[in-house]
Amino acid sequence: MFGPRGSFRRNWQRQHFAKVQEWHGLLVERFFSSLCAVWYLHGFAAAERNKLKMTKKRRNAGRSKHGRGHTRRVWCYQCNNLVAKDKATSRFLVRNLVDASTKRDIEDNSAIKGYEIPKLYVKTEYCVSCAIHSHIVHVRSVEERRVREAPQRFRPRPQQKTGGAQ
Fold first, then answer.
1. Cα angle vertex 33, ends 27, 35, to 5°?
2. How far is residue 3's CA from residue 82's CA, in Å, rounded to a whole number?
């Protein structure tokens, strides 16, 4: 215990409490006045606060939500992480069920001429980390990020059979 003992104690407590309140009030007042001065000096005055916005790395914030509150989540094909459907990188994978040599053997030995072997269709969705790690999408520079056109698809032309030496 600190302070006087005996009959003077209650009176001393009242005075001490009043002084503490006064000191606290001064401290709070000084703190807020200095805080307001700092805000004003840094351009965060109340009138200017609404004009300033944080910088954005991407125009769409990495999503294609556009006005929707929530979108359902999908599983990442590679790491099984839950990722928002509009943020996930989607690819449609079309593969043959068998390799080329087996396909040729099946076509040669098939009873039905012109039989087409079915293909495997899988819609894959990746989280951003897995899409970058698997080279499905690539990191682009600031200037290239501004380009909103889809990249050109590379499709090899079917080779025309030439007659050879005639």
1. 100
2. 62
Please say whether the dihedral angle defined by the alpha carbons of residues 138, 143, 147 and 151, taken in this order, is positive or negative: negative
6-62 pLDDT, tens per residue? 556 666 666 766 776 676 666 666 666 665 555 555 555 555 556 667 888 888 888
Distance of CA 8 to CAs 16, 17, 21, 22, 87, Å? 12, 14, 20, 21, 71
Strand partners, 18: none
pLDDT tens for each residue of 94-143: 999 999 999 989 888 888 888 888 999 999 999 999 999 999 988 989 88
Helix H or strand E encompassing 123? strand 119-126
* 88 within 8 A of 74, measured Cβ to Cβ: yes
If you write DSSP's letter for every residue of 4-70 in order, what string do you get? --GGGHHHHHHHHHHHHHHHHHHHHHHHHHHHHHHHHHTT--HHHHTT-----SSTTTT---TT-S-
